[in-house]
Design brief:
The complex is a heterodimer of chains A (about 800) and B (about 120). Chain A is α+β, with helices and mostly antiparallel strands. Chain A has 30 helices and 23 strands. In chain B, about 80% of the residues lie in helices and about 0% in strands. In chain B, α1 runs antiparallel to α7 and α4 runs antiparallel to α5. The longest helix of chain B has 21 residues. Chain B starts with a helix and ends with a helix. The chains are: A alpha+beta (about 800), B mainly alpha (about 120).
């Protein structure tokens, strides 16, 4: 067995009675190691510190923090997915056990402890999780291997060679598939070679490299249609050693198993089982299995393809020739494998659809490059390419900001962020895999995509102004992008773009029409008061709001400047401090009463006192009269949409995390969970699910005031925050939401029943506790309604 | 074994049933002895004295669990009743019930003494 099984597994016994702890230890015996906790707080602390635990035996009734709370925390922190919990209970109450299971417990043990039951449940649970962990490890290993093999580089390299060889671009794909088939069969019929899934994948991928040494073979020999004369043949044969040597020049550690395999494949793929191959004349299993299998794949594919010196043979004929020893000598085990997989081999290599599935990055790049004309990679071209790359790097660096390249075929975006240090600078995202582009708000992202779609080969440019976060602070950027089109066809193949910081310019531009060049402080304040909702003077040093006395002097009001935003302490991102420090203008966003405010801070000198004028205005946003849809108005919509969830128009989690301190004093907090969303998605499709979410969000928005805040908290969860409300009105509104959702119908899907579970708490602080308690209440309601549902079912 | 049988008859339990749940006799006896020093019962009385409902509930609940595990039939049924009456943490339990609990506790301690 592996190492994980040899060590003793650790069991954490959480029970407030020492007696019970000892009894469980005695029953379970010396097989395990034990840790003990006397209450829930200790359990959570241990898990937080990363104490290694394989299983928790958890008592429900404990002081300070009970077992349910522990489960809830474990769930929230995702510990429950790694560490199984068996609940101990003297309450044979079905409801308790049900709740424990709902919260993620794996099993339960009743008192009185029964020797056999306890032992079995513990060992079963451990076994189940050990398997799961083993699987996770297995998958991780493989993903890691695959990442490490830089498939792209390898394939580009081998494609280059193939283009010289005039071989079909599919040769290396075939090689990979054939190696895969043969090796998977091999491990099934024999255990002579210790090959795991990742070794197989490595060999199959690296098979692409087998002929890289041919780069040193003159083109006229490579592409000679007739037979090679003995001298030419000698040169041709040298490609094995040349390939081996070339690999030494790569900047990869030579002891890396990957490199060892690559060397073996390049050098020995023309060795023969009978020792009559070249360059080293190795015999039998002296030849690494990687080279053996690549040799066979190479021969099979060469036989079944047309080459400059020969016609293609049929699959059947090729198999026969290999088995009869007409084309080399092979390991009998591999011949067996070849015969065993013959049918799949024929399908695989001759089935076009599979070829396209395998078509990958390197091909897109190479095919594009090769379509124009063949790409002779002589020294001059290489130098030119190198120079181009230098130029590109120079301009990229000189422009700074953030740059991206989008490849449509791969759905890949490569970001270069010059604001970051070199380690963090480059990021690669795959859109097809659902990676989030967090750089842009979802709305901006959609707009960008739409704009890109509108471009043509003749007018490929897009320009937008967007807000993007730089070191956690949002700044205005100008985005200039252009689409890239196929050289030959009118086909869109990608885009490149650049974000340039224009924050100061935008601020100045906004200010300019308002500020006459030489206006005095008093004049500025007067002008601003006409325009902005909030205008005040503050002293950032004391964080106090200032009052201007009739005699023109300033005095402190005793009110802190941050109170207006519902905060307890100075804002971390204080723009006024920066305005004061830099004697300049600055801006930021704040939230209050369900709105987002733009806050401008400008340095002022009134009399002898230096202070800052703050002006704030809500970003405008209008609802259509029927409350159906939110229509952003004016240029500021860009800002606001940052924080809106594109589907439901509720605020996004970004809003919550950015403005959390402003919400700490909210009087009422509720969590709304859409019942059975998964079922709706599964039964009616995701469009129906999306409609349900949108509809529910709209209903909630219509049930609350515009000073209340609705946040999409999770996939099917909304967080509702009321900063000021009476208790009665709070619960009243929650009820209204429940009823209206319940009574509503999805027009396109009348069969869908909409329901929400709502958990609300009043006057609970801090916000984290309020959310946690609301969550608990919501779950109670959910389980209660599930019970009701079941009853109905059985009636 | 005879000792255990006698002991369990005194306190309303069944030696065979309890032994079936423990690895062996010695271990059971070790836990029975350990019970004489277990603080749960005393903690319960202290909590009651202080009218600390939360702790009173937790203690009597634990006591009920221990009694279940060790097969103290009489003690367990009284502890059970007390647990239920304290579950709401709203009012003090019936004094008569607490007295019965005390009586059962001393019966157990006495019987354990004799067994040695």
């Amino acid at each position: 067995m592996n190492g994980a099984m040899e060590r003793k597994e650790k069991i954490l016994i959480a029970d407030d009675s020492r007696m019970n702890q000892e009894m469980l230890t005695e029953i379970l015996g010396m097989k395990y190691e034990y840790l003990y906790a006397e209450d829930g707080v200790q359990v959570v602390e241990m898990l937080k510190q990363g104490v290694d635990v394989d299983l928790i035996l958890l008592d429900i009734h404990m002081p300070h923090m009970n077992g349910f709370d522990v489960l809830q925390t474990m769930r929230k922190e995702h510990w429950i997915e790694e560490t199984p919990v068996i609940v101990i209970s003297a309450d044979q109450d079905a409801e308790y056990i049900q709740r424990a299971f709902d919260l993620g417990a794996t099993d339960y043990i009743n008192r009185p402890f029964n020797l056999i039951v306890v032992q079995r449940r513990v060992s079963n649970t451990l076994l189940m999780y050990a398997r799961q962990r083993g699987l996770v490890q297995l998958v991780q290993d493989q993903v890691y291997e695959r990442e490490k093999i830089n498939t792209v580089m390898i394939n580009i390299l081998s494609h280059t060679i193939e283009s010289r060889n005039n071989e079909s671009g599919l040769h290396i794909l075939h090689m990979r598939s054939i190696c895969n088939l043969l090796l998977h069969r091999l491990v099934l019929i024999s255990d002579r070679y210790q090959l795991g899934e990742s070794e197989i994948s490595t060999i199959a991928t690296l098979s692409a490299l087998h002929d890289i040494g041919k780069i040193s073979v003159p083109k006229k020999i490579l592409n000679k249609p007739g037979k090679l004369d003995p001298e030419e043949w000698e040169i041709m044969k040298r490609h094995t050693e040349q390939g081996d040597r070339l690999l030494y020049e790569l900047a990869i550690s030579q002891t890396d198993p990957l490199m060892v395999t690559a060397h073996a494949i390049c050098r020995w793929h023309h060795e023969r089982w009978d020792g009559k191959g070249y360059p080293d004349g190795l015999i039998g299993d002296q030849i690494p299995i990687s080279a053996q299998v690549v040799a066979m794949a190479d021969v099979y594919d060469a036989l079944t393809s047309e080459r400059c010196y020969k016609q293609a043979f049929s699959h059947e004929k090729a198999i026969r020739m290999i088995c009869d020893g007409e084309c080399g000598a092979f390991n009998p085990l591999l011949i067996q494998c070849l015969l065993d997989v013959e049918k799949s081999l024929k399908d695989l290599v001759h089935n076009d659809s599979i070829r396209y599935d395998l078509l990958n990055e390197a091909e897109h790049l190479t095919v594009e490059a090769l379509e124009g004309k063949s790409l002779p990679l002589d020294d001059r071209t290489r130098r030119l390419l190198f120079n181009e790359q230098c130029k590109k790097d120079f301009f990229a660096k000189a422009c700074g900001g953030i740059q991206f390249e989008y490849d449509r075929w791969l759905g890949r975006v490569i970001f270069t962020d010059w604001n970051e240090d070199s380690k963090e600078r480059h990021k690669t995202l795959y859109l097809s895999e659902g990676d989030d582009i967090q750089l842009l708000s979802s709305e901006d992202w959609v707009t960008l995509r739409d704009n890109l779609r509108l471009t043509t080969k003749d007018s490929p440019f897009v320009e937008m102004e967007v807000l993007i976060p730089v070191h956690g602070r949002y700044r205005w950027h100008r985005l200039i992008a252009r689409t890239i089109w196929s050289y030959r066809t009118p086909e869109f193949i990608g885009a490149v773009g650049q974000f340039t910081d224009i924050h100061e310019e935008v601020i100045r531009r906004t200010m300019k029409p308002i500020l006459p060049e030489s206006s005095s402080a008093e004049e500025v304040i007067r002008i601003f008061s006409d325009i902005f909702e909030v205008v005040r003077l503050v002293d950032p040093k004391t964080a106090m709001v200032l009052r201007q006395n009739p005699d023109g002097t300033l005095s402190e009001t005793g009110v802190h400047c941050y109170e207006i935003w519902g905060r307890d302490s100075a804002c971390r991102n204080c723009t006024s401090c920066r305005a004061l420090g830099g004697k300049t203008w600055n801006s930021k966003l704040e939230a209050r009463d369900g709105k987002i405010f733009s806050v401008l801070s400008g340095f002022m000198k009134i009399g002898k006192r230096e202070c800052v004028m703050e002006a704030a205005f809500p970003l405008d946003e209008n609802r259509t009269p029927d409350g159906e849809e939110l229509v952003p108005t004016g240029g500021n919509s860009l800002l606001q949409n940052f924080y809106r969830d594109a589907l439901t128009h509720a605020y996004s989690r970004t809003y919550l995390s950015n403005f959390r301190p402003n919400l700490e004093h909210a009087e009422g907090v509720a969590l709304i969970d859409v019942d059975k969303l998964k079922q709706i998605n599964d039964t009616y499709g995701h469009i129906a699910g999306d409609m349900a979410l949108t509809q529910i969000s709209n209903i909630v928005l219509s049930c609350i005031r515009d000073i209340d805040t609705l946040i999409r908290y999770g996939g099917d969860e909304f967080l509702l925050i009321f900063s000021r409300i009476s208790e009665e009105a709070f619960y009243d509104r929650l009820n209204r939401i429940r009823t209206q959702v319940h009574n509503s119908v999805l027009e396109q899907y009348p069969g869908v029943r909409l329901n929400v579970s709502v958990g609300g708490v009043y006057h609970v602080y801090p916000l984290a506790d309020a959310i946690a308690q609301a969550d608990q209440k919501m779950y109670q309601e959910k389980s209660a309604s599930a019970v009701e549902e079941n009853k109905k079912h059985f009636r | 074994m005879e000792d255990l049988k006698v002991f369990y008859e005194k306190i309303g339990g069944n030696a065979t049933e309890v032994l079936g749940r423990f690895p062996n006799e010695l271990i059971l006896i070790r836990f029975l002895k350990k019970y004489t020093t277990d603080p749960t019962f005393d903690n319960f009385l202290v909590a009651l004295d202080k009218k600390d409902m939360e702790n009173a509930f937790l203690c009597v609940h634990t006591l009920k669990g221990i009694a279940l595990n060790l097969g103290f039939g009489n003690l367990q049924s009284v502890a059970s009743e007390l647990t239920e009456s304290l579950r709401s943490r709203e009012r003090l339990p019936d004094t008569a019930l607490v007295e019965t609990l005390k009586k059962e506790q001393s019966r157990i301690l006495e019987a354990l003494n004799v067994m040695e």
